[in-house]
Design goal:
By secondary structure, this protein is an alpha+beta fold. Helix content is 37%, strand content 11%.
Length: 219
C-alpha cells in the first residue's frame, strides 16, 4: 500500500501478486467452508448455488470472468487494484445474503457479498451513458455489494463501492460504517464468520460465531 501505483513496477509486482494470490486462495477456502458452516446457524441462503449464475452463494471463478476483468480494464482505461482483480480470478463471486426470517435474530448481519465483474461492467455502461448526457461524475464507483439494509430487502443507503481505475495493490471500500480497504474488509468479515454486521451489535463475537471463525484461515 505504501508504494501506491509503483506496486506495478518490476521491483514490486511479482512479490505483490504472489501475496495477492495466496491471500485470495485462503479467502476462497474460507468461502467454501462458510457455505457449509453458516447453515448450522439456521441460515438459509437467499440465492443458493443453483440460482442465477454469478450471484449464487459461491460462484467460482471462470474463464469468462478473466475476460471480463480485461474488458473492464480496457473500458476504464486503467487497472483494477490487484486485490480485487485477484479475488475475481481466484475466488469468483459470493453472496451470503439470507432468506428473510432465517438465521439468528440479528437485524442487519451484513453478510459477505462480492459481486462479479459482470455487475461492474453493467454499472460502467450506465455510468458512461450518463456522462454522454452531461450528467458528469468525477469518478466511476464500482459496486462491490449492496449495503446492510438492502441485503435484508430494506430500503437503505448507497452500495459498497470502490473508485476505479486504481493501480494500487488495494483500495478503500466506500459507504461503509467503518473505513476498510478491500482486504481489511475481508479480514474483518471472516473474523465474524462472514457476518460482519454482528460487529455492530456485539463488542465480542458470541460463541457460535467464534466457533465458525476459528475454522477459517487468516488472510
Amino acid at each position: 500500500m505504501a508504494v501506491g501505483e509503483r506496486v506495478r513496477s518490476r521491483d514490486f509486482l511479482t512479490d505483490a501478486q504472489g501475496v495477492a494470490d495466496e491471500t485470495m486462495r485462503r479467502a476462497r477456502r474460507n468461502v467454501e467452508k462458510l457455505v457449509n458452516l453458516l447453515p448450522g446457524l439456521g441460515w438459509t441462503f437467499a440465492r443458493p448455488i443453483q440460482g442465477q449464475p454469478g450471484y449464487a452463494v459461491y460462484s467460482p471463478s471462470e474463464d469468462k470472468q478473466h475476460d471480463e476483468i480485461e474488458q473492464l480494464e480496457r473500458e476504464l482505461g486503467g487497472p483494477v487494484p490487484l486485490s480485487i482483480a485477484t479475488w475475481w480470478r481466484v475466488v469468483g463471486s459470493v453472496d451470503f445474503t439470507r432468506r428473510p426470517g432465517s438465521g439468528p435474530p440479528v437485524e442487519y448481519p451484513d453478510p459477505l457479498v462480492v459481486l462479479p465483474p459482470s455487475a461492474v461492467l453493467d454499472e460502467l455502461a450506465e455510468w458512461k451513458e450518463e456522462q454522454e448526457y452531461g450528467e458528469t461524475h468525477p469518478a466511476f464507483l464500482a459496486p462491490l455489494a449492496p449495503d446492510s439494509f438492502h441485503k435484508e430487502d430494506v430500503s437503505g443507503g448507497a452500495p459498497y463501492v470502490i473508485a476505479l481505475p486504481n493501480p494500487a495493490c488495494d483500495a478503500d471500500v466506500l459507504n461503509m460504517e467503518r473505513s476498510f480497504t478491500f482486504v481489511a474488509y475481508l479480514r474483518h468479515a471472516f473474523s465474524w464468520a462472514g457476518l460482519p454486521g454482528y460487529g455492530e451489535v456485539f463488542s465480542r463475537p458470541p460463541p457460535e460465531i467464534v466457533a465458525i471463525a476459528a475454522q477459517l484461515e487468516p488472510l
